[in-house]
Amino acid sequence: MTKHSDTKVAVLGLGAMGSALASAVVKAGYVTTVWNRSPRKADALGAEGAVVAATARDAVTASDVVVACLFDAASVREVLDPIADSLAGRTLVNVTTTSPEAAREFASWAAERGVVYLDGGIMAVPEMIGSPGSSVLYSGSEGAFERHRPLLDLWGESVYCGEDAGMASLYDLALLSGMYVMFAGFMHGAAMVAGAGVSAREFAGRSAAWLRAMTEGFAGFAEVIDGGDYTVPGQQSLEFSSLDDLLTASAAQGISTELLDAVQKLIQPQIDAGHGKEGFARVFESIKHPA
Ligand code: NDP
User: Fold this and answer.
1) Alpha carbon distance 271, 113 (integer Å)
2) Which domains does the chain have, with CATH numbers?
3) What DSSP designation does 28 have?
4) Interface predicted TM-score (ipTM) of this complex, two decimals
5) Does residue 75's CB lie within 6 angstroms of at least one atom of ligand 1?
6) Which positions fall inside the NADPH-dependent reductive aminase-like C-terminal domain (predicted)?
């Protein structure tokens, strides 16, 4: 591992997230050079002690590790393509959210230019950076991950997902899938009780406690899915998990049933195929092998 005093860091992109990442690096005592397309956004970092570069190239050439926290894959290309020569021999940590495919393309792009590449997926909002609960997923160069752990660990728990550069992004997007469906489930429940005069605030309190408790079930589902035997006794069966009552109650409230319909459409084919007495985890099969 490299001591932080040996490593000079550039942060390209000082939006909400880039600024939070850069600030943590500055506070930890690294020589930090920052650059942003709109220069004013660098003022606060400059006041904290970062060196403000006039161009992205200047930031890169002043540093060993270049952190890109831009908007999307296209903006990363726009910034880095013209200065690719300056990145040669350096490590690029790209924490901009991109698709797994785009991450792999960046890894190839980097390899062709002699740049060490680490892709990152940030599982936090800017306010969480450096606090417990923040984690960042990485994939790509394992050597870079190990060498720069002291730097990466400033932002949260650092998790290495493998040499395939697309893996961090895939993992990131998989976790976000769970988040969005859970958020939508909360909205559905809030809409169900709203007609009966229950405020979303009150429902949020109950929902959070309930969903937290329900996450305890993931491990059991995972064991069944990984074991591939959905007949293992002791599981909640698909038949027992029918959403009919939920759909009827939702319709009676006059609210959309689209979200529950979607879940029911994953349960029902398994029952129709004769698996009704098997575990709810079989929904995984409906998703993994769509008809
Ligand atoms: P912001 O919108 O706050 O900032 C976007 C940054 O990208 C700005 O620095 C902006 O520069 C720059 N940028 C956009 N387009 C270009 C371009 N064509 N050329 C040069 N610079 C450009 O976004 P965040 O900081 O919140 O997010 C940055 C990345 O982090 C995103 O990929 C996001 O998905 C990811 N992320 C963010 C999270 C969050 O909660 N905010 C959570 C997890 C990941 P300018 O100031 O000049 O517009």
Assistant:
1) 53
2) 8-163 (3.40.50.720), 195-288 (1.10.1040.10)
3) T
4) 0.99
5) yes
6) 164-288
